[in-house]
TrEMBL record:
A Pfam family recorded for this sequence: Usp
InterPro entries: UspA
Domain annotation UspA: ranges: 1-147
Source organism of the structure: Maribacter spongiicola
Top-level taxonomic group: Bacteria
Protein name: Nucleotide-binding universal stress UspA family protein
Length: 290
């Protein structure tokens, strides 16, 4: 039985991520935990009227959260009739990241699945504030990011970005292996073409670790031409290949870390139309700059 956590703000993008998750694990026994964390604005409480206003706003936010979760649950039951799936809802007056970390630990979450951006983000944003916060602070649980217009298709092709600055640990690729076996996918290990002997040696070690871990799963290696920036190169790679899932390790020196060093990631900085799987490790936190 898998446990899947889906943070939601009830936006169209969040519903699209929900649909993707339900279809991704359509043939697996799962418990889907839908989380909405709300934090009403704080107002002056020096006057009694202020305290009453605050209480009313707290109640209003709680009601909206509970109603939104109920509506999501009803919509799922109406559109999806999967006996393998169970659903739980969590309405929490707390900071999103804190609640996500607590649910992951208590419910033994296997995957966090969420939209790349939310209802509060405009069209120019690829990764919104909440998504960046989750990527920065969630440890030891893979995070699957779903672009707003991504449509689920069976994962025939998974691409794993292998960076010379990061050596994969033996268990780090478990989420990838699980998905590849589930969908009988081909895994392509994508590395940067670089003539530096030291980097070439590190990449070779990485490839050996990955190949050993993948075992009988069909896989191949692909070298990216790095004449242009890594951002441009990755975008071109995704656009020109049949990549259906882009996998990146989230560690202190990774491309993903550098990508998410601000509150948001604008489409002008990076934009990917396929889902991205971030492999989160305890020592691989990202820090948001202020």
């Amino acid at each position: 039985m898998k446990n899947i956590l889906i943070p939601t703000d009830f936006s169209l993008a969040a519903w699209n991520a929900t649909q993707y998750a339900l279809q991704l694990f359509a043939e697996s026994e799962c418990v889907f935990h839908f989380l909405n964390a709300y934090t009403p604005e704080l107002h002056s409480n020096r006057l009694m009227a202020g305290r009453v206003t605050d209480a009313a706003k707290d109640y209003s936010a709680q009601t909206a959260s509970e109603k939104g979760l109920k509506k999501t649950f009803q919509r799922i039951k109406k559109q999806y009739h999967n006996p393998l799936h169970k659903y739980k809802t969590i309405s929490s007056f707390s900071m999103l990241v804190d609640e996500v970390k607590e649910v992951i630990e208590k419910q033994h979450i296997d995957f966090v699945i969420m939209s790349a951006s939310g209802g509060a983000d405009d069209e120019s944003i690829f990764l919104g504030r909440n998504t960046v916060r989750i990527l920065n602070h969630v440890d030891a649980c893979p995070v699957l990011i779903i672009p707003p217009r991504a449509v689920f298709e069976n994962l025939h092709s998974i691409s794993v970005v292998s960076e010379f600055s990061h050596l994969f640990k033996s268990d780090e690729l478990n989420p990838v292996i699980e998905l590849a076996r589930y969908f009988n996918s081909t895994v392509q290990i994508v590395s940067m073409q670089n003539a530096t002997p030291q980097i070439a040696e590190l990449q070779q070690i990485n490839h050996e670790v990955i190949a050993e871990k993948l075992g009988s799963i069909y896989h191949n290696f692909y070298k990216l031409d790095t004449e242009s920036s890594l951002t441009t190169t990755l975008k071109r790679y995704v656009d020109q290949t049949n990549c259906q899932l882009l996998v990146m390790s989230n560690n202190a020196n990774s491309y993903l870390r550098n990508l998410c060093n601000d509150y948001i990631v604008g489409k002008s900085i990076f934009c990917c139309h396929v889902p991205m799987l971030s492999l989160q490790l305890i020592e691989n936190n990202i820090s948001i700059s202020h």
